Amino acid sequence: MSLSNWSDTPCLRPKWPPRFFHPSVEAVGRKLKRIFDQNANSEYFSCEEIRDYSYYESLLLQGLEGIDRRIERGSLIPMELADYPKIIRADNGRVRACIYIGSFDPFQLTHLMVVVRFLASELSNSDFVIVVPEASPDPAKPLKTDYTFRLSIAKMQIEGIFDPFIKVLDLGVQADTIEIVRRFIGMHSGLALELTHLIGSDVLPIAARYIGQDMSTWKKEAKESSVNYLHRIHVVQRAGAAVEPSYVEAIEHEGVNVVLDSSIVAAPSSTDFRTRQAFTIVLPTPSIRDKMEIMFRYHMHRSWSSDRE
Length: 309
Prior knowledge:
The chain has helices spanning 3-6, 23-40, 47-73, 109-120, 147-158, 177-186, 204-224, 245-252, 270-276, 286-297; strands at residues 94-102, 128-133, 166-168, 192-200, 228-236, 257-261. The chain contains ten helices and six strands.
């Protein structure tokens, strides 16, 4: 459903299934439903704001159903992440991970949907996703929020909710993508690591430009850390950022498999949060609501679904 169509829908929420197939998905589903139930029963959220959240609630529900199907078919094997990566409970010495790196200023429901849809996709062969905010200087984003704060906002929306499918790791201090991935590889000494790098199509040109340097660094780290390393790139199509075949060819020339996911989710961006006060794009966990309640009570929020420019 497009954002313009969604803004015309009544204040209704999606119907959750009685149960999911796998206990891990069931546990995540219960926690998410509780979050959205608490939202809907709040005295200060308007119907318009509930509708904003219900759009994402529907997408998250669809994603969980897809993850459930992958587990039932055996293409996704949940891995215990409570102490990861200090303790790695690898199946037969093999870890099938995905890493999602970005400025995440802030991490929000659109980012979360990218992750959940990836895990639900038949194109995916990963069992879990690691989310890492990066903290390297970026001239294009001079006003980027402090790394520690961005990390904490991501954790507030993921920790204790999405185990064992999504985990936030603190790997981004003074690190760009090449260094974050290098650090991640080094944590898997003696194991086979099948790592998928999840990126948007807008990032593909940069990935293609630096893939040679990146792979040289990552292979060197894998060798030094005794990691049997396999790298893939999963490209999520973003509106207005078409995939140029030459970029894919440049990456595959380095022996890296590229998977193109052409499905597009109509959703607002972090810019809507920062510049338009569209706060309903952040998952309203209790800790997030505590931070934003005053904005809703005093009507400082703007709906992204009915007030888009």
